[in-house]
Amino acid sequence: MRQQILSCVLKSNGTINISFALVNFNTSISPNTGSRPEKPIGYRLMCRFWTYDVFYHPAIIQGKYEYLMRMDDDSYFSDRIKKDPFLYMDSRRLDYMYRSTYKESAYPLYSILKPILKRKYVHITCIYNNFFMIRLKWYYESPRVQNFVNELIKDNLILREYIGDGCIHGAMLHVDRRHVRVEHVRNIPYGHNYHVMPTGYQQWKFQEVNDFHEVIHKSCEQLTVLKGIQGKVAHIKMS
């Protein structure tokens, strides 16, 4: 992410306003016995953050923003984007936009989803939400989304049991499927660490490239990304 910021500043010879907001990841809750021990409480708090906490953080509430976009610090745009994604969302009147999906067990979700959906069987497509964009008004004002999220939060189910935030986002879209305007975009060249998603590709592909991390230390001098479906290391000078 710092590479993206530097590229914006150095290429335009301008300035951008950046603020850093503190996040409270302290809790007295412990995971239930046998609940995915490889997913520690810190990771579960991160999942809760992108499900609930971020939307009610003072920085978001006080900013009165219309949209929120997530970009992890090991995420990047691997090439030029033809159209500003915020303008694209606005022109399409979208509530939610994402780049890819993934598969993961979301069994603890079903105890909440089955009564809400009034179904005996439920299938959820998990959103690869290391990059996503959302219209905040939809999140705050959809009764179905609010009811679902509050069920996750009220007794700390989201911490006691492991539930991936990508699966939760998929569930939010599912419970409000008759009203939400959502799009799985393919025209954004995006990468997350070794996961590459070039323009036109629907799903991500894992490409472990040793050279990638070997040149990251030069990130103050050049933007380093994995380009194309083969994950070729590319350097973009920023000065």
Automatic annotation (TrEMBL):
- Spell out the GO cellular component terms annotated for this protein, sorted alphabetically and separated by semicolons: Golgi apparatus; membrane
Q: Which GO terms describe its molecular function?
A: alpha-1,2-mannosyltransferase activity
Listed InterPro entries? Glyco_trans_15, Nucleotide-diphossugar_trans
Keywords (A to Z) from UniProt? Transferase
Q: Which domain of life is it from?
A: Eukaryota
Q: Report any one BP term from Gene Ontology.
A: protein N-linked glycosylation
The family note in this entry says: Belongs to the glycosyltransferase 15 family.
Q: What is the protein name stated in its UniProt record?
A: Uncharacterized protein
